[in-house]
Amino acid sequence: MKFICFGLLIAWTALAQETPTEREAAHDVLRHMSELEKAVDVPTIVERLTAANGARDQVVARAKELMDKELLGMADEITRHPEIGFEEYKSIEKLTTYLKQHGFEVTMGAGGLKTAFVAKYKRKDGPANPDSPKLGVILEYDALRGTTRPFHGDQHSAQGPVGMAAAIAIAETLERTHMPGSITVFGAPGEEMMPPNAKTDMYKAGVFNGMDILVRSHSSSATRRPAAGFGTCCLNIDGVKYIFSGAPSHQMTPWDGRNALEAVIHLFNNIDAVRSSIRPEARIQGIITEGGAAPNVVPDRAVADFYIRYPDEVYLAQVKEFVDNAARAAALATGTKLKIDNYGEDRDGISVSSLSEVAFAYMKKYGATKIAEAPGKPQGYEETGSVSSAIPGMGFSAASSNAPNHTYEMEADALTGVGHSGFQVDAQAMTALLYDFLSRADYRVKVRQEFDGIHKLFDEYRDSLHKVYVTPNVPDPK
Amino acid sequence: MKFICFGLLIAWTALAQETPTEREAAHDVLRHMSELEKAVDVPTIVERLTAANGARDQVVARAKELMDKELLGMADEITRHPEIGFEEYKSIEKLTTYLKQHGFEVTMGAGGLKTAFVAKYKRKDGPANPDSPKLGVILEYDALRGTTRPFHGDQHSAQGPVGMAAAIAIAETLERTHMPGSITVFGAPGEEMMPPNAKTDMYKAGVFNGMDILVRSHSSSATRRPAAGFGTCCLNIDGVKYIFSGAPSHQMTPWDGRNALEAVIHLFNNIDAVRSSIRPEARIQGIITEGGAAPNVVPDRAVADFYIRYPDEVYLAQVKEFVDNAARAAALATGTKLKIDNYGEDRDGISVSSLSEVAFAYMKKYGATKIAEAPGKPQGYEETGSVSSAIPGMGFSAASSNAPNHTYEMEADALTGVGHSGFQVDAQAMTALLYDFLSRADYRVKVRQEFDGIHKLFDEYRDSLHKVYVTPNVPDPK
Amino acid sequence: MKFICFGLLIAWTALAQETPTEREAAHDVLRHMSELEKAVDVPTIVERLTAANGARDQVVARAKELMDKELLGMADEITRHPEIGFEEYKSIEKLTTYLKQHGFEVTMGAGGLKTAFVAKYKRKDGPANPDSPKLGVILEYDALRGTTRPFHGDQHSAQGPVGMAAAIAIAETLERTHMPGSITVFGAPGEEMMPPNAKTDMYKAGVFNGMDILVRSHSSSATRRPAAGFGTCCLNIDGVKYIFSGAPSHQMTPWDGRNALEAVIHLFNNIDAVRSSIRPEARIQGIITEGGAAPNVVPDRAVADFYIRYPDEVYLAQVKEFVDNAARAAALATGTKLKIDNYGEDRDGISVSSLSEVAFAYMKKYGATKIAEAPGKPQGYEETGSVSSAIPGMGFSAASSNAPNHTYEMEADALTGVGHSGFQVDAQAMTALLYDFLSRADYRVKVRQEFDGIHKLFDEYRDSLHKVYVTPNVPDPK
Amino acid sequence: MKFICFGLLIAWTALAQETPTEREAAHDVLRHMSELEKAVDVPTIVERLTAANGARDQVVARAKELMDKELLGMADEITRHPEIGFEEYKSIEKLTTYLKQHGFEVTMGAGGLKTAFVAKYKRKDGPANPDSPKLGVILEYDALRGTTRPFHGDQHSAQGPVGMAAAIAIAETLERTHMPGSITVFGAPGEEMMPPNAKTDMYKAGVFNGMDILVRSHSSSATRRPAAGFGTCCLNIDGVKYIFSGAPSHQMTPWDGRNALEAVIHLFNNIDAVRSSIRPEARIQGIITEGGAAPNVVPDRAVADFYIRYPDEVYLAQVKEFVDNAARAAALATGTKLKIDNYGEDRDGISVSSLSEVAFAYMKKYGATKIAEAPGKPQGYEETGSVSSAIPGMGFSAASSNAPNHTYEMEADALTGVGHSGFQVDAQAMTALLYDFLSRADYRVKVRQEFDGIHKLFDEYRDSLHKVYVTPNVPDPK
Lengths: 478, 478, 478, 478
Fold this sequence. Notes:
The structure is a homotetramer.
Chain A: H1 20-25, H2 27-40, H3 42-49, H4 54-80, H5 89-101, E1 104-108, E2 117-121, E3 134-139, E4 144-145, E5 150-151, H6 159-177, E6 182-187, H7 198-204, E7 213-217, E8 229-231, E9 236-245, H8 260-274, E10 283-290, E11 301-310, H9 313-334, E12 337-346, E13 349-351, H10 353-365, E14 393-396, H11 408-413, H12 417-439, H13 441-468
Parallel strand pairs in A: 3-6, 3-7, 7-14
Antiparallel strand pairs in A: 1-2, 2-6, 4-5, 8-13, 9-11, 9-12, 10-11
Helix pairs in contact in A: 2-13, 3-10, 4-6, 4-12, 6-12, 8-9, 10-12
């Protein structure tokens, strides 16, 4: 999750619609969602898949073995050598070496990012049929920037080992059984940092093209899964830099210059001016990253960095326009020039019950603790929404710490029993689900049906939102 | 003068150029001015005109007689019944009645203003040759808005009587001597108020078309005259209203509205933001004349009224653009709409020594007191500059009070000896100068030569200013 | 209701707690409330009271007769001659004359307000025993300020007649039956305007002292009653004027002055600065009522008028402190002086089911239409909360219009069948409830028990809120 | 000079009084100054001192020899290895080694500054009589911060060698002639940087205690000297940091935090708000040096750095109070806490003609070029005013470059003939003046008389300023 926690405790209901207006707009959509879920009949799926299955148990046991023998140790190693986003050189060295040792072909620099990679399993029995199921596992490995040192307070250190255990167990199964299918591992850097928004850049570069399913694990203080639908943990976000240029001049003759810092200050003022004209669920906050060089020179460059958030992306676009106009107005008023750098965005992802409920059942089966019985807010399996709204998938989060995310305590837990047992649960549940998806064509059909249905309802929801968010009519002044 | 005095004491030098940049730009212009003044040779003119002249003395004596018998009394009457600008109905009734009684044809509503008028003397010996000299006298009659009552603290009450004394004495002379020429009286309301800017409106409507000279009197605490040149007492001024419209909404749901008051507030903020980017001689000040109707409704209309001042009109245009952009930026940032109402402007007028030095000599000859020996700052004979930069003329201001302008004491003085004797001086000196202008073709040529020369230098000065006021280069942000 | 409606449509649930924090704080209180309601057992009360009762029917019939014969006509008269708040001279002339004709002693100027009055019924059989039940009826009569004319778009015009019908019917019953008790009518002006906050002023002056019950009627587009509890329709409100004084100066030398308008502008800016530091349910909005006199004089006085709202009064106090500090900071920064005029406040009132459910049953019994079956949000029977949180009572609002409040259509409906039948329902239901309260000691005990219980829970709720609204710790800068 | 030049071209007259108000206040002071100068009779002093004098010529020749043989080469060395302020370790290594080699005792860390030092010449004939003349030479050596590298664009690289040549020549003379007296060299770091304000810190630590005269050289594009009086090149300056602390919180719940960046922004706004209430000669400009860490966390620390300037220190104190109040108001309005760090100030210094005219005559005598004949604006011999307003002294600035200060061209000139010949002139003129001061008791008396006279007039001037800068009366609001 992409924020520093200050004990933020918001009790999410399973509803992604957070405002009365959204709930009004979602009225029909929610009814159709309910019909869709009835048609997919997830309880029956769960029952069938989680029943006794020796073949599955064998694959899962191999994943467990890899964890026990080598990968929990590797997780500890990475935990002990934290590297912040886009600088995870040593961590990916460990991961890619291991993957190569297990028959994966590694390509570095995916999506133009130095510490991103793609590792494709190279079947010795020849390339997979292009129509056969394509499975993908996303790994993350960046540490948090602490005030004194980088630290693995979000346990990304374990995601590589967990995902590799599942991927290698599946790869070996493909080889052994000659089942049609392929398995690919995606190394995604800098989850905690934006810009760049790594997964979005990778997605736009076509890195995930053709995948039928993507899975990922993530640390948690409880064992959870999302409800079916679309949503995101912490509002839709636009990350934007507003860069102003002016003209320098000595403090003694400021009229020969144009003050870029005044422009940035009035960007903030202009935003404050319309806070009461923007729906109260918005969160707009910025910092000043460049605020002038010396007090005796008119600042000719100044930069502000903003996160703009709203529960849905439709009204978010209106909020963004308010903020962009605030910046344009600041430039106009101060005689400076403006560049708007839209460096990143996080959007609603899609969660499907046919994956999340099976995953949840497997997590419980393999010994997950601290179970949150009610499904959580719908949301994608990765934080940007760009991948998780386009490709079905599941994020596994068995309880792996007694502390909240983004704490030094959670880092410590990664090295002890509470962490290790959570990682083991994730590795086994992930393997089981991937095996089911690989081996059962009817299950793949159901997942696709649910995903496509929610995808369509998401479009309908956005259409409805466009209708409820009318802008007021402003007449010409007389 | 168009402002409420707060004991403002600025020692004007004879220089209209008030900033180092202006003085730099005026370097050549001032040299040419000096050459022009040498060529016109005003001291010789003064000497010749003010020499003994029985014909002139007869006309002047008649003006004095009118003052003594009737017009000082009328001045007292108007002083005792003050009427503020554009409501001077009783005052103009007195003035126009008297003018009609003395052979003038009165047309009301000059320039579209209810209390403005034009009174043309109708020669009984037939209309004047169109090429003969056309003399004009401007009258004013509006009182000041005091905190408790209107009052004649600027003695405009005496301008009608003084100007009429001169105009009637000249009219009778035209009749008696059959000299070619005409005399017209212009009643100009609301000198103390803007908008509308009465003389500018009258000028633009062509009311003063064809005049060869215009004269006016005005109260003063000293007997003064301006140096030759161009200038104004109190900076060039743009009067502007910024009118914003938004959309109303209840306070409970302000996002359904757009707040026009926030736009006005940010107009002020945006101006404040660039104060340090504007040369320090500028004076920009506004008030909020409409600031919302009720605190529980989003204000959908708000209005600010500004005076924008700078020593010269060239940089003033840049300042105005800053302020207009401040308003446009406020509208852009708040989602409101803007109307810019440029309701008035005051500009540099022209003063010519061939008129002002003769007038000064006559004022002294007829007994003016409290003489300021050094010529004052160049400036036109009326406050807007629109007329006084286009037509040669002279404002007479013999000392008529012991108190500063815009005081209750100056009103009181209008009713006593100090006022009466000043008004008598103005009436006689005005009559003498008009008689000289009417009767001496060579004098008219000299006045025209000087006026045209200064007019041309004024153009050159503005051209130079355009060169010194370069705007800084602002590169695109990177 | 004290606001101009812009189609405000908020679907209130019966919950007065509007934020997650409030709901958290109210957890125990709501549980105790539920226990209290169970103990009072309102359904049984309703059943008993609304059963057949000839004595009650006689009194109610008398109220209906008064309405039919005279008072509906008087309502029409007042509707046709609308008078805005604190200027309702003709309206109260009609009302007080009628009251005097029916044995009431009228005292004008209650609470220091010219158009407020108290009319005490003077029993001919001697004064009531001081321990006997004291019944009160509140009348209102002010019209709305429309953009073109005053109008009775909230139908206050009918409140006088409705309340008088009930009061007179009860008074005649007291006389006739010699039952112990008294009846008093309170004329309360300017409901739509603040300041002054009429009912609060009257309450503080002790006008309502000793009352055991107070009733009022009000127009509505549906027949409604509130749930038991405490609350208000539209948040708790503080009405405040911020008055700044500076020092005047001419625009040419502004440094000799201090600009009070800049202070007001920075009051707004300072509020905008902390909008994101204030919980999003707050509503803070102001207008500028005095914004300077002339653009060429530094404004030495400026005034802003604010409504500050929050769902509960405990956090409202923190919001108020933010706004007061914004004003103090504006004065400090601009060198001006500040006066804070806290001119009015609206607070949660108390509603008791033992009154509202009986009233609701009677409204239905007497033919009310457009029934809202679910109880509405808890709230007092008058808008300020000052009276309705201190004395038990009930506001009757049978459907009396097809249009929303504050519309010209609702005014028109006051003159036709839809209005008249609604007023008749209110008059009869009010009479019935007053009769029951007067005649049944056990009912009075129950009402008191419920009111005192809720009053105590309200105190507990505020105590809990004080605990949840902690202010952040701000360390000293290093 | 302590600012980055942008082609700033202000033609200073010899008048330190820059505003009409200052000139008004200085009226009597300037008259007394003129009387003082007449009494000191500088022309006669110059004539006597610069007459033929073999003893002086010998000392001067020695200084020249040191320059030619070693010190011009050392200047080149330092020029080629520029070190920015407070990091001039290698530069002072060269200087102090050379001083030690010539009999000076060096103490490092003067005034608590690592790269400051004091080098006292240790007479071999025993310590100087405490009443004998105490001569001091100030050296500087810091380079400018260029955009790409440190550079000696202000030629401080030559000040050490120049000053050492003079100091050593004098030291050897003391030794040789047994004249009473002492010579001390002061190494002052970081002239171009504040904070810390090095010379002020050294002065306050008593480093310069007891000195009778202080001299310094500085590069220049012309040979200049100041008129007698008090003043500074570029207004009196206060350097201040405003440090705000708030409380952090996640962007999702900003009401749990307090935003320190909003406080900084409103500091700027509050200053802008009063710009029109502050005399237009003020220059107030700031930058934001810390503006928040991440856009999703409420900034809990933010810092702004300001230079506040005014022509005189009396009104500067009023301006400073405006800015401090702006900061206090920002803290009050945002609920943050404020620390005001007054890290430095530059003030008027004193210049005496009895030193500057003698120095000027010597510079011409020893071959200075590009002579500015008219005396410049009065100002001290060092930039802070703290030393130069307390101890008589002289800054030598023979033309040493064809380029303006603070340019790469001036750095290049330091290595060629134009630089070298200017440095030679400074070294010789400085030596000559020090020798005269050392050897002529009557000269020392005259210098002291003039300095004390100006010091007293400076006090009188400040007293007069206190009288003219009255603050407006602000009445309580009603």
